[in-house]
Design a protein that fits this description.
The structure holds two protein chains of two kinds. Chain A is an alpha/beta fold. Chain A has two domains: 317 residues, 3-Layer(bba) Sandwich (FAD/NAD(P)-binding domain), CATH 3.50.50.60; 187 residues, 2-Layer Sandwich (Cholesterol Oxidase, domain 2). In chain A, 23% of the residues lie in helices and 16% in strands. In chain A, strands 1, 2, 3, 8, 9, 10, 11 and 21 form an eight-stranded mixed sheet that branches. Chain A has a four-stranded mixed sheet with strand order 5-4-18-17. Chain A has a three-stranded antiparallel sheet with strand order 15-13-19, with helices on one face. The longest helix of chain A is centred in the C-terminal third of the chain and has 20 residues. Chain A starts with a strand and ends in a 5-residue tail after the last helix. By secondary structure, chain B is mainly α. Helices cover 55% and strands 0% of the residues of chain B. Chain B has eight helices and no strands. Chain B is elongated and about 55 Å long. Classes of the chains: A alpha/beta, B mainly alpha. The interface between A and B is large, with 60 and 51 residues.
Chain lengths: 558, 171
Amino acid sequence: MPIKLKPVDVAIVGLGAAGGVAVLPLARAGLKIAAIEAGTWMNPHDFRPDELHNNVRGLLTSVPKANREVPTVRDAPGAPTRRGAIHPMMNAIGGTSIHYWAQSWRLNPWDFKTRTEVTKRYGAAAIPRGSTVEDWPISYDDLENYYDTIEHEVGVSGKAGNIQGRIDSAGNVYEAPRRREYPMPALRGSGFTDLMMDTAKQLGWKPFRPPAAINSKTCAYHGYCDRGGCHINAKNSTAVTTIPAALKTKNLTIFDLAHATRIESAPDGRASGVTYIRNGKEYFQPARAVLLASYTYENTRLLLLSKSKPYPRGLSNNHGQVGKHYFGHWQNGVTALFPFDINVWYGTPAQAAAIDDFADDNYDHTGLGFIGGTTLQPHTEMHPIASANMNTFGRAPSWGAKWKAFIHENAARHTSAYMQTSAFPYEQTFLDLDDEVRDPLGDPVCRVTSGPKENESRAVAYAQKKMEEWFRAAGAIEVIRPQANPPGVSTHAYGGTRMGDNPESNVVDRWGFAHECPNLAILGASVMGTSGARNPTLTAQALSWRTADRLIATWKSI
Amino acid sequence: MKKLTRRTVIASATLVPVAAIRSAAQIPHFAILEAAADRILPPDDLGPGAKQAGAANYIATVVAADQPFLNNLSLIDDESQKRFHKSFVDLAPADQDSVLTHIESTARPFFARLRQLTLEGMFADPSYGGNRQFAGWDLIRYPGPRLAVSPEEQKLRDPIKPVRRSANNAH
């Protein structure tokens, strides 16, 4: 029998980008919180400029829990499954916000109302066949206040392009109105990103420096941000921002190195608390409300594993919607070779030249055969092993003296643009539990079923041609547009517990609370119904803060 | 359930190469490994090859307990004996290349791994046993790990003065 702990107001599973934000308003409101986190604290000494450690071996994590439960992937039911080498997530207090790229974008209004907007502009037939995309139950305007809160509480650098309708071409002119400027200026450019900014302007596009949860006044641009932590705490992970602030209230207790195994429910259908294993002992943490914030794959898996009398198919899954409406960003970057050293060794991926001209519905899609679009971002940060393993563009063999001469000349002259193409949910794309592969506790891992998509493939191909045009205009002598490949296990994974007013097709309501289980809320990109063409974290964090606010406002009736 | 702590994960990453460097030459077929890596990235006017850079020392730390990989190394020698009646390490470079070209087409996953490990041994931080004297980083003009980088160090075209430093000794 698990050891029963003293009840708390709120138990939260996962203290990463989403959970690490939600604890701050809750703690300030005086609620007693128990945070159950698989990892523990990391500190700047853990963060070395070491490509083999961070990028090749994926060892930057405080415990290897996630890597022992890597999801499996298959194209369709019945197709063979394959398994990723490493999990895209890490375990630590602060979670993946420690080693992510920190790109902190707001979604556009179109992303919240895709079905309505597409139907209005192009007709209902333009919605991709088989897609289950719905309008969000909330609009950009409902979230604007929370975007602003996160940008200031976590700390996001950037240049506004639209303050209350006043357009500034130094920022992103396609962004929706924001109430005020970012709290910190945008990251600086590099020789290469400045070249790309100038070239984009010559092409008539609207380039800008993208927003990032990086302190632009202290960032050292040392080049080991990707899958690396920041040695000077300039990356504003929740481990150095909202979590320490919540701890100061004395209302947050962190149970680190704790592996949550089930969310328990009472016979009346309410969530009663969380069972977890810590130091080889099993505990039960009772709570009046439970927040699930363990990333998209684990959110679905924990719900499906948490079977009970009221929920025989998994917690909050009596409508069979847990795991549905899953999708991931398509990321199929274009690679270019220049006839001079571009010197992108240092910097950080958020030190970029970005354009939004071909994202979302910022351009006319009539006749293109797809909806959605792509942000294009040439950027800095390149490591030596990956660089030497460069594409040879058909100009050299892959080993031997001629190859050596080729990489000697060109390893400092190539780069790949970061390109995120919006993706949509489909009937045949979903998460469930694997039949065979299990974690060390014997629980099945999450399984991704996701096949090719015509809409997304066409969108990728369109954006790749624009990126080739941009690279060539900047002087590239070779460009490779890779085949559009659907995402496997992704750092940009959405859905599985989608937000919507209709409980027949959504797991959580417009506030993030489970339709079926009123004192269970779910945090993270798993509640998002569309992705936009930009990184998910800021939106996931804004939604988390909003859900926490709702919990505080309705506390007496929860 | 046995839990690894952060400390042991980190320690295993940094201590393995140091401990293994001494015993690297003791893995079976080390000479073949060293010679094959040295054809993937050969010595010439541009700089040292994989052998002189110590790439095989690094690779040995990774494959010491990988019996299928070690068996595949002996395949290289078998093919040399079949073609030239000599051990791989005694062949002329051009003949070594013809053997490796055959291995590349007949044992594709093995060769791809050998190539990847050679890249890691050549271009990873020198604390892992390869990239001696920063030979790999000099070859591709990687200017080394810095803890802070100025705008002047991010310019187009201008060569940057390399810092000859290991990340793992820097902390």
